[in-house]
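Hi C.,

You asked whether I'd gotten around to modeling the 238-residue construct. I have! Everything is below, sequence then structure, no commentary in between.
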Amino acid sequence: DPTLLHNPPMLSEYPLELRESMLRIPEEDLEAQMDGLRLFKQAQQLRIAAADIAQVLDVKKVSQHLTALAQAIINEVINIAWQQVANRFGVPKSTLGSNNKGFGVIAYGKTGGQELSYGSDLDLVFVHRSPEGDETTGLANGEKVVAASQFYMKLAQRIMHIFNTRMSSGILYELDMRLRPSGNSGVLVIHINTFGQYQQKDAWTWEHQALVRARLIYGNPSIASEFSQIREQILRQA
């Protein structure tokens, strides 16, 4: 249908379209959800590519659409992963009674700069802001209580599994996590305060330079504000 192919959705519509398509898939069927995410990405990239070839979108707009699509998918993957980990351990007590997951995703490189191309990987760093001593609620019988930091580690592993597993429809996106503090030897998800201390005391010059295009693409306003302050302090250093 040329009217569909040459008219990509508005940038703000990707999350809504993805949510609608995922509602048709049973929550307990992770494999079907992972397939659904991959097929949605491919269908939307086809629409963007058609608009690109038909010159409905210029190069900058193509990158903005590809970035908006990736962000919608990141958001959905976090929701799926959260549900799965919460089913095993409950949720961190600091997140009870709010929509706040206490979790943030910092995007670097092309994702941060809204410059994604069709085959780009995603440069991401995961952070959390659970208070010291925070732990999960456990399940109804009080079992499987774990430290909040361990909960977020499990969440990060689950997110990576959903993205990286090779299925008949391929992988979702290649995730590049090497920009996290201490690179590949560092933990998968760190406290936002630890991220700030690392940037102040231990980060290399190129890591500071990378902050120029970094932005928080997932997280509640308090994490967004903390990240913004850290970034500004580092970039204003003499």
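If it helps when you're writing up: The mean pLDDT is 93.

Thanks,
B.
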